[in-house]
From TrEMBL:
It comes from the Bacteria. The chain crosses the membrane at residues 18-42, 54-82. It comes from Microbacterium murale. Keywords: Membrane, Transmembrane, Transmembrane helix. This is Multidrug ABC transporter ATPase.
């Protein structure tokens, strides 16, 4: 088994870390809100109950948060591939 890296060693930029942690946080928050909606529905909350308090925000996060987190992960992958490709050309 070889211990050498298959590609060039490219440092991780601050933007990559921010994008990764933001996508992870947004996806986790979306899943938590999704389960909160399921638990609220199962406990007998009515449609009127979901329109009061913080519930409109909880209901709005999953449909927008999950696709946005997915797009951020795709952008992170593209940026990583481009950066590694440029580093490979320099080597």
């Amino acid at each position: 088994m070889s211990t050498q890296n298959s590609g060039p060693d490219v440092p991780v930029r601050r933007l990559d870390r921010i994008l990764a942690f933001t996508a992870l946080t947004l996806a986790a928050l979306s899943v938590i809100c999704f389960f909160a909606i399921i638990i609220g529905s199962a406990s007998g909350m009515t449609q009127k109950s979901f329109s009061d308090g913080i519930w409109p925000l909880v209901i709005a996060i999953p449909p927008y948060g999950l696709p946005l987190a997915f797009a951020m992960i795709i952008a992170l992958l593209v940026m990583s591939f481009v950066r590694k490709g440029r580093a490979a050309k320099r080597s």
